[in-house]
């Protein structure tokens, strides 16, 4: 399950930021896991909940937004929304799609406290 590795990386990223920026705890962590990112959001949430005890993220609310995938269709020259990399273009039915969005996993916000 690569989501456990991703969760560990997210926790390290936030812990490094806490040390660098001198905050003690996080009350809100908001992530984006795009539809084309290959991340199973339920598994990531479970892995994060298992990884945060004893860190500055302990007790934090974790929100994970799931933006849709977008792609440029080389067949019809349109930007379209897709749910997976295997989808056909909803406009022309072609499969020559270049993903342009929804491929990322990123930290969007942190609400931090220095108390």
UniProtKB/TrEMBL annotation:
PANTHER family: HYDROGENASE MATURATION FACTOR HYPA (PTHR34535). Gene3D superfamilies: 3.30.2320.80. Keywords: Metal-binding, Nickel, Zinc. Belongs to the HypA/HybF family. GO terms for biological process: protein maturation. This is Hydrogenase maturation factor HypA. InterPro entries: Hydgase_Ni_incorp_HypA/HybF_CS, HypA/HybF. It holds the Pfam family HypA. Ni(2+) binds at residue 2. Involved in the maturation of [NiFe] hydrogenases. Required for nickel insertion into the metal center of the hydrogenase. GO terms for molecular function: nickel cation binding; zinc ion binding. Zn(2+) binds at residues 73, 76, 89, 92. The keyword Chaperone does not apply. Signal peptide: none annotated.
């Amino acid at each position: 399950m690569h989501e456990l590795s991703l969760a560990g990386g997210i926790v390290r990223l936030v812990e490094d930021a806490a040390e660098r920026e001198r905050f003690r705890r996080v009350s809100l962590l908001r992530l984006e896991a795009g539809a084309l990112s290959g991340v199973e959001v339920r598994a990531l949430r479970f892995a994060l909940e298992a990884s945060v005890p004893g860190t500055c993220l302990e007790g934090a609310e974790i929100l994970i937004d799931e933006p849709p995938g977008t792609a440029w269709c080389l067949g019809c020259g349109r930007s379209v929304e897709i749910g997976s990399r295997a989808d056909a273009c909803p406009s022309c039915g072609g499969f020559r799609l270049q993903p342009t969005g929804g491929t990322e996993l990123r930290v969007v916000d942190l609400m931090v406290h220095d108390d």
